[in-house]
Amino acid sequence: MSTPINILILAAGLGTRMKSDQAKVLHKIGSQTIIARQLRTVAELSPEKIFIIVGHQAEKVEEIARAATNEAIAEKLHFVLQSEQRGTGHAVKCAKGVLEKAHGLVLVINGDVPLVKADTLRKLIAEHERGNSAATFITIRIADPPAYGRVIRDENGRFMKIIEERDCTREERAITELNPGLYCFNIPALLVALDKLEPRNAQNEYYLTDVPEHLLAAGLTVGTVLHEDARELDGVNTRAELAEMWKRLRHQTLNRLMAEGVTIIDPDSTYIDDSVEIGRDTIIHPQVIIEGNSRIGRNCEINSWSHLTNVEIGDECRVLNSCVLVDTKLTARNSVGPFAHLRMRAELAEEAVVGNFVEVKKSKLGRKTKSMHLTYLGDATIGDRVNIGAATVTCNYDGKQKHQTIIEDDVKIGSDTMLIAPVRVGRGSVSGAGSVITKDVPPDSLVVGMPAKVIKKLKE
Q1: How confident is the model at residue 1 (pLDDT cuts 50, 70, 90)?
Q2: Which residue in 78, 307, 373, 403 is the catalytic one?
């Protein structure tokens, strides 16, 4: 693509058929909002600027959009308010001020088309440049046409105009070539045509679909690109359509993963985001959910009823039944669960084990360290080869702020030990069952009691 590319996303609508107080583009497919998915796609085109037309819940849409992008893309975002929704043409007219300062081409995309692929947009741009057109838009064919605009051609097959479904005659409604709402415009030509739009239609709105006809009348060229996969360009108008789109995308993702060597025992009950990567020979059991930017290595096993979000899991790890892992890293050969909860940058070094009913929050467990039962480890740094007894708690909160617990290598923490942070347990030390550790424990010491006291130096 030799010409600078800009993106204009029409995201101002409420989506009344969603029966929701939330803007349509804020609804989710999997774990990602519709607007986040579109931004992820258009970012692949390396655009100069991304303009987003906002209306209903404008501030929320802007907040979510910025949070969904990296810093480089966030700098390219510009939000334009459409305070009164009077059609797609009116939405683009609201952006005239920012478009006048842009250069090159602008892709205009409806905000409710979340599964469009970057390659499809590249194809549109390439055809636009090849035809030296003022505007080029994608068309699709559907035998039983939905409520899309019809593409009208003359007897020689040349494009004439687009007529919105509500304005069609009975004969025009029978036309199967449709306009799904993806356009590429030369910006100067678009700006001139926008001034000619008038709300002369059943909706009393300004239609963007009238722009190509005005361009033709001015002696300019309008091109079309027939896209074979109409379902890729489906819009979302109802919650049923939202669910159907997620189901379709989910099965595409599962089929891709299985083709890459992942065993998914029951695809019908497994929910994996399309952003997830999983290594070969990993086994995913039924009723598993894996979301967000998750990476799972080779030869792992994720058991039933576990829910993983934004995890990084190395090779040969096992997540047993009914675990919840969020923003967590397992390095390699780890075992977690059943019924374990790891969150907020929890990290396990190689061969560390977390057992049943253990919660690990914002803590690191060293190599071959084990915490097998009924324990809370929060804001802790735990060394190698440490054994944490059942019912241990790092008491990290004093009512005002959180404090750190440090447990050095080769320590044994007895059952029902309370560690009152901030506190450090020295290398090779042992706590007796039921101890309450309120002060630092020297290395190689046995501590017992409430509060715990050193009763023996172990090396002696």
Answers
A1: low
A2: 373
pLDDT for residue 460: 63
Pairing of strands 49-54, 159-163: unpaired
Distance of CA 93 to the CA centre of its chain: 30
- 330 falls within a domain: no
Task: Name the domain count of the chain.
Answer: 1
Whether 186 is in a domain gets the answer yes
- Which letter does DSSP use for residue 292 in this model? S
Token pair belonging to 401: 């702020």
Token output for 120: 């499809």
Q: Is residue 172 situated within a structural domain?
A: yes
Q: How far apart are CA 91 and CA 99, in angstroms?
A: 12
CB 283, CB 265: distance < 8 Å: yes
Degrees, nearest 5: CA angle 140-145-151: 50
On the question of pLDDT at 201 being above 90, the answer is: no
- DSSP readout, 237-280? -SHHHHHHHHHHHHHHHHHHHHHTT-EES-GGG-EE-TT-EE-T
> Is 106 part of any domain?
yes
| 66: its two tokens | 């910025």
pLDDT in tens, 342-365: 999 999 999 999 999 999 999 999
Cβ atoms 160, 154 nearer than 8 A: yes
CA 229 to chain centre: 23
* Torsion sign across C-alpha atoms 254, 279, 286, 274: negative
Residue 123 sits in a domain whose CATH number is: 3.90.550.10
Question: Is residue 23 predicted with pLDDT exceeding 70?
Answer: yes
Task: Describe the crossing of helices 34-42 and 118-130 by its angle, rounded to 10 degrees.
Answer: 50
DSSP conformation class of 414: P
Cα–Cα distance, 179 to 137 (Å, whole number): 8
Q: What is the per-residue burial (b if ≥16 Cβ within 10 Å, else e) of 415-453?
A: bbbbbbbebbbbbbbbbbeebbbeeebebbbbbbeeebe
Evaluate whether 104 touches 2 at the Cβ level (below 8 Å). no
Residue-number span of the structural domain to which 43 is assigned = 5-233
The answer to whether 373 is a known catalytic residue is yes
